[in-house]
Amino acid sequence: MSKSTAPVELPLADDPVTCCVPLAGEPISTERAVAVVPMLKAIADPARLRLLSLVLSHEGQEACVCDLTPAFDLSQPTISHHLKVLHESGLLDREKQGTWVYYQARPEAMEALAGLFAPAPAAAPAATDVEEVLHG
Predict the structure, then answer these.
(1) Which of 93, 115, 119 has its CA nearest to residue 36?
(2) Max Cα distance, the chain (Å)
(3) What is the number of helices (H) and of strands (E) in the chain?
């Protein structure tokens, strides 16, 4: 039985990038945690974290394996495997152009990761607090 190369398709409600509620904003549900974990596991590997960084910092925020391989002491098939993991986790999009596959970070995924670790929004000051600040 062969492994599927298609990215994991999650239902919209379970897609880790559909909602950027900070962990500090409210307790994360079990379902949400299960949906977010693949992205976190993907970047928990040093090679994959570096690959994501290289793609993001590459000209046009797009790179192919041939652009990325020289930065590693890893074979091209290993780099391709790591890129596949990043793609299947929802962090990278890919597009075949001729014989090369180009990878781009998904902006929604980058926003979701940033939003996940954002501080909780500050509560609005009470009316009396505002008046004290304004009128001292």
Answers:
(1) 115
(2) 73
(3) 6, 3
Q: Smallest Cα–Cα separation from 86: which of 44, 25, 133?
A: 44
pLDDT, one tens digit per residue, over 108-129 is 999 888 888 888 776 655 555 5
E strand or H helix at 112, and its extent? helix 107-116
CA distances to 9, 28, 88, 119 from 16, in Å? 11, 12, 12, 18
pLDDT digits (tens, 9 = 90+) for 6-51: 443 333 344 555 545 678 878 888 988 888 899 999 999 999 999 9
Q: Is 59 exposed, middle or buried (0-12, 13-18, 19+ CB in 10 A)?
A: exposed
- What DSSP string runs through 50-106? HHHHHHHHSGGGEEEHHHHGGGSSS-HHHHHHHHHHHHHTTSEEEEEETTEEEEEE-
User: Rounded distance, CA 57 to CA 73, Å?
Assistant: 19
Tokens representing 83? Answer: 């890129």
Query: Can you read off the two tokens belonging to residue 65?
Result: 């394996």
